[in-house]
Amino acid sequence: MAMELPKEEREANGFEKSPVKPVCRSVVTTNTTIEGLYANLDKNRRGILMHVDELDSFLGNMSRYSRGNDEAYWLQLFNGDEIKCDRKSSDDTIAIQHPYVSVIGGTQPGILPELFGGKRLMNGFASRLLKVFPDINEMPRWKTIRVPQSVIDEWNELVRRILEEPTEYDGNGEVSPHVLSFSDEATQLLCKWKNEENGKAWQDTDDDYLKGFYGKLETYAVRFSLVIQV
Predict the structure, then answer these.
(1) pLDDT by residue, tens only, the chain of 230 residues
(2) DSSP string of 3-50?
(3) Whole-angstrom Cα distance, residue 175 to residue 98?
(4) Hey, which end of the chain has fewer CB within 10 Å, N or C?
(5) Which 8-state DSSP code applies to residue 204?
(6) Is 66:46 a contact under the CB 8 Å cutoff?
(7) Positive/negative CA dihedral, 109, 128, 75, 55
(8) Strand partners, 52
(9) Contact indicator for 75, 128 with CB cutoff of 8 Å
(10) CA separation for the pair 170, 89 (Å, rounded)
């Protein structure tokens, strides 16, 4: 409302003469263009979650609005490398030193080869998304049992505490990471798993997809450790 008024009328109506447009901070987004995703990340430097109802739609829309290759941007995001984007809608350049985006969605197991085969299999894109689906042998039955409200409240409280965790920023507005180090015992266990189990599994297969999968498991092992610690 204040922005719609002429400057001379803002103070007369109790508003600041030059009000600052509020920033929408949302940690969850849906299907969007790469430019839109970067703009959202620019407002939410701690990271965001992209929730897509159908992965088929998400993957099918890649590069739909441009002639670029969106998959290359997602490969870069997975690694957490610094990103830069020149916005077409303005003269601004978005630069984020520590980008973080998680993607979650659903699809039918039968179309997994179509979604993650070919180029996405060879360039490592397929290995960057973990696939999880139940082994269902019969139609699941409906039940009248509901999740206890106490469990829902406890989960909501956990999420709220994480979102409200204080964050420090440097002079450029970048998030200053809080580093958590492995204990000596945990470091030894991680190295043993990497060298004796995951490394052996990688060595024993000639399947390109499995090699890529085992390679990404090293990253996921560390990330899941952080999730559990948090």
Answers:
(1) 566 677 767 777 767 767 677 777 788 888 788 888 888 888 888 899 999 888 888 887 775 655 557 888 888 888 888 888 776 666 678 888 888 899 999 988 888 888 888 888 888 888 888 888 878 888 888 999 999 999 999 999 999 998 888 888 888 778 888 889 999 999 999 999 999 999 999 999 998 888 888 988 988 999 999 989 98
(2) GGS-HHHHHHTT--SSPPPPP---SEE-S--HHHHHHHHHH-TT-EEE
(3) 7
(4) N
(5) T
(6) no
(7) positive
(8) 105
(9) yes
(10) 27
The sheet with strand 28-29 has its strands ordered as 28-29, 48-54, 101-106
Question: 219 burial class (0-12, 13-18, 19+ CB within 10 angstroms)?
Answer: middle
Taking alpha carbons only, the member of 84, 94, 80 closest to residue 42 is 94
| Overall size of the chain counted in residues | 230
- Hey, what amino acid is at 106? G
| In the chain, alpha helices (H) | 7-12, 34-43, 55-60, 70-79, 112-116, 119-122, 149-163, 184-192, 199-203, 208-229
| Beta-sheet strands, E only, within the chain | 28-29, 48-54, 83-86, 93-96, 101-106
Contacts of 139 (CB under 8 A, 6+ apart): none
Closest CA to 45 of 126, 116, 99, 117: 99
